[in-house]
Amino acid sequence: MPNGGAEASVRTYCFGPFRLIPERQLLLRGDVPVPIGGRARDILTALLDRAGDVVDKRELIARVWPDTHVAESNLKVNMNALRRALGECPDAPSSIETVVGRGYRFAAEVVVSQASEPASATGPLAHHGNLPNATTRIVGRTEAIEAIQRELSEARLVSIVGPGGAGKTTVALAAAELLIERFRDGVWWVDLARLNEPSLVPDAVAAAVGLATHASDRLAALESYLREREVLLVFDNCEHLIDAASASAQRLLAGTTAVSLLATSREPLRLPGERVRRLSGLESPPAGAELSATAAAAFPAVRLFAERASDRLETFRLNDDEAAAAAEICRRLDGLPLAIELAATRVDALGVRALSQHLDARLGRSRQLRGGHERHRTLQAMIDWSYRLLPDGEKLLLRRLSVFAGSFDPEAACELADGDVAERARTLDDIAHLVEKSLLATEVRGESIAYRLLETTRAYCLEQLRASGEEDAIRRRHADHVCAVLEGASADWVERPSREWAQRYGGFLDDLRNALDWLEAADADRSLLIRLTVAGCFLWNHFSLTEECRIRVTRALEDLAPAGGAGTPVEMRLQMSLAGATMFTRGAIPAALTALERVHDIAVRVGDLDHQLRCLRMMSSYELFLGNPDGKARSLTTFLRLAGAADPTALSAGDTHMALAELFLGRLDTSRQRLLRHYRRTLKDSNDPRFARFLYDQNVDIGNVLSHVEWLRGCPDTARQITRETVELARRTEHELSLSNALAWACMTYLLSGDYRECGECAASLEEQVVRHGIVIWRPVATFCRGAVAHARGATDAGIATLEQALAEFREIRHLARMPFYLGVFAEALARSGRLADAEHTVRAALERVQLQKEHWILPEILRIQASILSEQGRRGEAEQALLEAVARAGELRSLSLQLRAAIDLADGWRAQSREADARRMLAPICAAFGEGFTTRDLIRAHALLGQLDEPAKPECRSESVAR
Questions:
Q1: pTM above 0.85, yes or no
Q2: Which residue, 278, 313, 331, sits at the end of a domain?
Q3: pLDDT at 732
Q4: Which residues pair with 867 in a beta bridge?
Q5: Is residue 609 domain-resident?
C-alpha cells in the first residue's frame, strides 16, 4: 500500500471557465464543482484527449462502455447531459460540435497541464446537501433566481408559485445551488411529488436530511434535530399535499431558529411571513410583430424553443422565415417551458410552420372543451397532443410506466411488458424514443442511467392508464416487481455492506408504499400484500421507519389467517418485526411478549435457527426490562446451547448478554471473564449488514457492560475510558438503537462515578435520541439522570420532582431493570431534603426490589443509603449495622467501589465517636487497594478523611484493570 508521501501524476484540462481533472473525477467552473454523471465525464475526457479531431461514435461508445453493449441513444442522452452541464457558460454550446454521420469534435481551445500531488489528495470538500444534478440549461429565469436569493436573506419562507410546466422546480434548484455557501449545515431537497399520503410528509423531510427516526411524532423529532442547525429545506411539488406541507413547514419554522424553507407549488402555503414569488410563462414576442430570427431569439421563450429543437435535430437553426411561426408557437403555449420543450420535440417530424398549425388546431379545441385555469389547460393540451402523436407501442409503455412513483431502470420497465424477449427489446427501443421526445427524463447514476416521468406527464398517463381498463393488471405487475426486488434485497442484506445496501434499495420506498396502497384499496391478492409487507420490513427497519412498519405489519397480520398464512414462516417474520417495534417504542408491554412467543413457537416448528436465536435474544431483553435477570439468564442459556451446536458465530453475542445478566445478579468476576474474551477483538464493523443482528452493535454491548463491571470492581478510570470509547463507537455506527443504548449505559456509569457534568451531557443526548427516534424504553433513564444531576447540584425540589417523574415513566412502560438503584437514589434525595419518613419507605421498597429482582449488584449501595437515613433518624446502632453489612456484602461481590463508599460513611461515623484507630484500620486497606481513580469524588473524600485521622494511606496498585 502506498504511503502518505507517495505522489501521483494528475492531468488538468482547461477550457473557457472550466477545468477537468479526470484522476479526481472532478469538473470545476472556476472553483465550484459542476454536477456531472460519470459517463458524461468520460465522454468529455475522451473528446478533450483528442481536441480538434473527430471522435467516431463507435469509438466513444467502446471507450465509455468498454464491457457493455449499449444503444447509440445512451451516447446521445449522456452527450445532451454534458452539453447542458457546460451550457451554464454562454460560449459552451459550440465547444462540442456534431459531425453528422461520424461523431463529435471538441472545437474550443484546450490547455493541458500535468502535475504531481500526494496520492491521498482529494478534491474540494463536497457541499452538504442532496440537491439533484442540474443538467438543463436555464433560459430566461435569471431575474427570478436572483430575487429568490434576496428574499431568502430577508425571510425564512419563500414560495415559488405558478402553473404546472412553468419551471418552478428548475428555478428552485438553480436558486438552491447558489445558496449552498450561505447555509452552514446544508441545502436539502424534499421531493413531495412521489407521495400520495399527507402523513408521510415528515418522513420525506427526515429522509432528505438524513435523520433516521423511530419516533411516531416525526415532526417533533425533526424539530429537535434541526433546532440549532442552519439549513435550507426545499419542499418541491407541494400542491397535492398543500395542507400537510404547510403544517410541516409551520411547525419546523416555529420550532427552530436557523431553518429556512423554499417551496414550489401551484398555490402559496399561506403562512405568516411567507414571501411569494410568482412564476409565469417565459416572455414571448408580441402578436403581429415581424421579427428576424435573431430578434425573436432575444425573447426567452423563443430561445428555449430553438435550443430544445436543436437538441432534437442537431442541424436545426431557426431562420428568418420561421421566426414568426416559432413566436406564435411560444405565445400559444403561454410561454410555459415544459409545453415549449414538448413542442420542440416535433420539429424534426413537422417543421416549425406545420407544428404551429397543428398546435393552433389542438389548443383551440382544448380551450373550447375544458374548464380550469387557462395555462393549466394549455399544458394539459400540450401533453395530450404529444401523447396522441405517439405510436401505439410508446403510448402503451408510457401508460405502464406511470405506476412507478419515482425513477426506474430499464429492467424495471421491462418487467411491466408482457414478458417475451421481443417485447422486452421493443420496450428498450421505446424508452430511447420517449427520452428523445422529452417525455421521459433521464437521471445519470454513476455507471447507470435511470428514467422518470415528469409529474405532470405522469398524472396525465395515470388517467390514461385508468381509462384503458388495464390498470389492475399493470399495478399487479408493478407490485410483483417491487416484491421480487425487495425479496432479493432481503437475501442481499446478509451479503452486501450496509451503506451500499441502503443506496441500492432505498429508492424503492415510494414504490413499496404505492404498491401496498393499491393492494389494500383494491382488495387484491392478499397473499401478495402479505409477501410485500414481509419484504418491506427490511427497508422500514433499515431506515428506522418503525411506526410505518408497525402499521403495515399489523394490517398484514389481520389478513394472514384468511390468506392461509397463519403459523407459517411469513407470520414468524411479521411477528418478529412487530415485537421489536412494540418493545422499543412502547415498552416491555405484554403485546411484545405475545409476538415473541409466537415467533419462537413457529421458529422451533419449522426449524428456523436464526429466528430462534434472534427471538431468544429479544426475549432476554424483555426479561431484563421487566427486572428479571434470572429469566434473562434462562433465555440466554438456551441461546448459547443452540448457538454452540449450530451457529458458533452467534456465541459472542450470547456471551455478552449472559455477562449482563451476571452483572445484575452480582457475579462480577464471571461477567468480566466473559466480556474479556471478546473485548477489543476484531469484530464485524457497523458497515457489515449483520452488525446489529441482535438489535445492537456487539462492540457497543460489550463496552456498555464492561464499563459497569470495571467501575464496580474499583477501576473508575478504566470504566470512564471504556464508556467514552463505546459512545464514540456507537456514534460511528449511525445506528440509533446502538447509540441510544450506549448513551443510556454511559449516563449510569457517569452517575455512579459522581461525574455529574458528563452524566448531564449524556442525558441530554439521550433525550434528543428519544425524541428523534421514539425509543421510549430509554426515556425514563434520561429523565432520571437529569433529576439526579439537578439534585446533586443543589436544585433539591426540582430534582426530586424530576426523579419522581422518571419513576412513574419506568413503571408505565414496565422498564424495571435497575429499579432498586433508582429507588435508592430517590430515597437519598428525599432524606437530604428532610423528608425522612418518605425516604425510609422508599429505601425499604428498594431493598424489597433487590430481593424480588435478584439485583444483588447494588445491595451494598442500598444498605449504605438506608444507613444514612437511619443515622438522620438518630438510630446510630442500626445505621452502623447496615454499614457493616454493606462493607461485607461489597467484599463478597468483589466490588471495591461500593465497598469504599460504605467504608467512608462507616469511618466518618466512627471518627465522630472518637474511634479513629478503628476507622483507619478499616478504611486504609480499602483505599490502598485502588490502583487508579485518585481524582474521583469517592477517593478524594476517602483520602481527606484518612488525613483527618492523622495517618494518610499511601495508595498502591493492587487492582487488575483491563489491558489497554
A1: no
A2: 278
A3: 81
A4: none
A5: no
